[in-house]
Write a structure and sequence with these properties.
The protein is mainly beta. The protein is 2% helix and 41% strand. The strands form six sheets. Strands 13, 14, 19, 20, 21, 22 and 23 form a seven-stranded mixed β-sheet that branches. Strands 12, 15, 16, 17 and 18 form a five-stranded antiparallel β-sheet that branches. It has a four-stranded antiparallel β-sheet with strand order 4-5-6-7, with no helix packed on it.
């Protein structure tokens, strides 16, 4: 049964549809989600060419896979930054070069794509961290001063970290390097970490980075989900427990869709009910949910205190989105994924953009 409640987020009063189908006692989730008839919405284009600054010849930069998207509302359109893999390297996951393409839509499903990537490895200060693996799996938020802040995975095929970059127009970007570089006297400089979602609040139909207790907050990580704080959205410090280790706020659960591990999804949303964290769960092949395939990725939701981002209030037992359609189960990741990374509010609807089997971009919608 679909339940509706009135909540205030930021300044406007909004009617937000919340999900009660997966858990009839819950009144805080987004959903239920509906797939459009047109799917997937972004697929590989073998004809696109890019004069890569690090290669001697033009590269087919989005010829193999287009997936794992970020999304933002700007100038009355939805803009999606999507990970695109070229046809270089070995034919296995993580061994091609990834760049970020930019596509826009006025209806949520029909996209106009730029012919070249807007974010990519270059001969810059981040080259050693991003080449030859590339830049992967973005999440994006708008700052209070209307700067766009990108979190993404830097991958050089040896190690990885969350990179931070900013832009005023989604086309020209400034890279700042790893989110935790120099934090805690360098304790995290060699850490391998990925998947960062900065907490936002809905102001009008824009998700804007939110301060809680004077700080910005980011949920991050796979294996377990952690927290970090920042004064400026660029320099981040992990929140630590009494032993000095990064605090764990969400961990795996046997018998559930997240039995393998949870991983951060799109930027979380601060509401009066709490902080809604959409996250991706990997299903353990031996101790997982028998309704899902082994190693499949499905998306669920968790609720944290609006005053204390470390405090878990509620958590879905069942996923809100799981691999069901052929395009979500066939592709580079044959176990199937509905890997959520981009969430926007647009024309009184929520649109959740996700990666399909590490091969294409899909979208689901709800009121």
């Amino acid at each position: 049964m679909l339940q509706r409640i009135l909540v205030t987020v930021g300044s406007p009063l909004l009617l937000v549809a919340l999900l009660g189908a997966a858990n009839p006692t819950s009144t805080w989730q987004l959903g239920p989600f509906t797939r459009p008839t047109q799917a997937p919405v972004i697929s590989p284009n073998k004809s696109s060419l890019f004069n890569d600054p690090l290669r001697p010849t033009p590269v087919h930069w989005e010829s193999l896979h287009t997936f794992n998207p970020a999304a933002i509302v700007r100038h009355g359109k939805i803009f999606v930054l999507y990970r695109a893999e070229d046809d270089s390297g070995e034919m296995q996951i993580g061994m091609h070069t990834s760049r970020l393409g930019l596509a826009s839509t006025t209806d949520g499903t029909t996209f106009t794509r730029l012919p070249e990537p807007v974010f990519f490895p270059a001969d810059d200060a981040q080259k050693s961290r991003e080449w030859p693996g590339g830049v992967e799996d973005p999440r994006i938020v708008e700052s209070p001063d209307h700067t766009y802040v990108l979190t993404y995975t830097q991958w050089n095929r040896i190690t990885y970290s969350i990179g931070i970059a900013t832009s005023k127009d989604l086309l020209h970007w400034t890279k700042f390097g790893p989110a935790f570089l120099g934090s805690a006297n360098g304790r995290y400089d060699q850490l391998q970490y990925k998947s960062g979602g900065i907490v936002t609040q809905l102001i009008g139909e824009k998700l804007v980075a939110a301060r809680i207790k004077g700080k910005y907050w980011m949920y991050w990580g796979e294996g377990a989900i952690h927290l970090a704080t920042s004064p400026d959205l660029i320099h981040w410090t992990p929140v630590e427990d009494a032993t000095g280790a990064p605090i764990e706020v969400l961990t795996k659960r046997p018998g559930h869709f997240d039995s393998g591990f949870p991983e951060v999804g799109p930027p979380p949303i601060l509401s009066p009910n709490g902080i809604v964290v959409l996250y991706n769960g990997k299903n353990d092949p031996d101790q997982g949910d028998p309704a899902l395939g082994p190693n499949a990725y499905a998306a669920g939701q968790a609720l944290f205190s609006p005053d204390d981002p470390t405090k878990l209030i509620a958590r879905d037992d069942l996923p809100s989105l799981k691999p069901e359609q052929p395009f979500e189960k066939t592709g580079q990741y044959a176990a199937g994924t509905t890997f959520a990374e981009g969430l926007v509010r647009f024309h009184h609807h929520w649109l959740l953009y996700y990666g399909c089997a590490d091969s294409a971009v899909g979208v689901v919608t709800t009121h």
